[in-house]
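Annex B. Sample input.
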Amino acid sequence: MKDFLNEIRRPINISLSRKFLYLTLIFIAGIILGIISKLLDETASNLLPYFLETLDLRNFFSRMGVWIFLAVLISVYCKSPIRSAINVFLFFVGMVGSYYLYTILIAGFFPKSYMMIWIIMTIISPFLAFVCWYAKGKGIIAISISSIIIMFISRQTFAFGFWYFDILNTLELLLWIATIFVLYQSPKQISKVTTIGLLLYFVTAQTNLFWGML
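Annex B, continued. Sample output.
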């Protein structure tokens, strides 16, 4: 199995000090983003600076698109699938932990059911990150993984029905474009990934996934 996976993408070893540095920075970034997200939730939009109100960051951070993108970004740029799993897990531990600690300890609110959804997603995040790491590899498996990523980010970006096709959010459209750049390896590869990913999106657009969050 190891040889098979190495044919898709081969891990690169880095020093222990660099591993610890990246892990620490990613964990801190998760904490900061969790707090920012909660602060935006707690602040009325008309009290925010005009450019933040216009960007609608409150809704942007409450949706899954930005978190999918950040998880993919962390995952594919790690040096091994194991590091990818660890780093993405700690990112979500930091983000979800800081968000709900703020919610409970400062805001005085305990959203148990919604919190459990995010805890479950945090628990499964290392397994998904392990798989996503191979999106930057070679062959049909890498293309398939990348296509599924495009499908999920498309579900956050576009609305599709029998008589309509719309962009849900300008910032999420930018994330969709950024995801293509992150997954890019060659013109031929990315054209396959984008085409298959969009086809998967159109097929699954009317299906609710993960309590409708995806």
